[in-house]
Amino acid sequence: MADDHEQHPESLLPYDDWTMEALRQVVVRALRYAAENGLPGEHHFYLTFRTDYPGVEMPTRLRSQYPQEMTIVLQHQFWDLAVDPEAETMSVGLSFGGVPTTLRVPLAAVTAFADPFVRYGLRFPVEVPTAPPAEAAPGPQVEAERVPPLETAGPPTPEPETAPEEPQVVSLDAFRRRTASKEKE
Q1: Helix count (H) and strand count (E) of the chain?
Q2: SS3 76
């Protein structure tokens, strides 16, 4: 039996990058499916992204409320969901506090994707480039990881400001606290 601690040569092939690209394509395909066909059954998505990532377009009031990271829920009331593969962005219309808003998010800014109905989720560590986009490196070197199954109820949502059918913004910190407390039980 080979020693478990033996050294492996450093790969000259970018397997980690290929894996990350493939996992991000799962997110893209899910969003494109929902854009073209709607969400079937009880499927719904939690999409977390870095709000401080270059190219994120969102209202100033939301950016001040969520200066680094924001989670949106695509479930009952959203519109104009679109994925632009050439620009590598997604956009969606949501209502925040009764105010219709369009968000445009570079796919590279996505830090997490989950479909709680089937307990499926992915996390993507994202580094925010410090240089302007034109001078930035080709892309952050990050690894994707499969997240543990989500509780069916999903993360806690804040009390709705409007009708209960409105999409809710969920703080990722609240999600992590709930997940950690569930694991202890």
Answers
A1: 3, 9
A2: coil
- Residues 6 or more apart from 179 whose CB is under 8 A from it? 148, 150, 151, 155
Report the alpha-carbon distance of residue 93 to residue 77 in Å, rounded.
Answer: 9
**Beta carbons of 32 and 92 less than 8 angstroms apart:** no
Residue 44: both structure tokens together: 């719904």
pTM of the full predicted structure? 0.65
pLDDT, tens digit (0-9, with 9 covering 90-100), for 139-148: 433 344 444 4
Residue 161 has which token pair? 């400001």
Dist CA 90 CA 99 (whole Å):
20
Pick from 117, 146, 108: nearest CA to 46? 117
Distance CA 55, CA 129 (A): 11
Rounded Cα–Cα distance for residues 163 and 13 (Å): 51
Where do the domains of the chain lie, and which CATH numbers do they carry?
Answer: 15-184 (2.30.30.220)
- Nearest residue to 75 via CA among 180, 169, 176, 178: 169
Helical H segments across 8-155, by residue range: 15-37, 60-65
For 125-173, write each residue's pLDDT tens digit.
888 887 554 544 444 333 444 444 443 333 333 333 433 344 444 444 4
Half-sphere exposure of 72 (CA within 13 A, CB side): 24
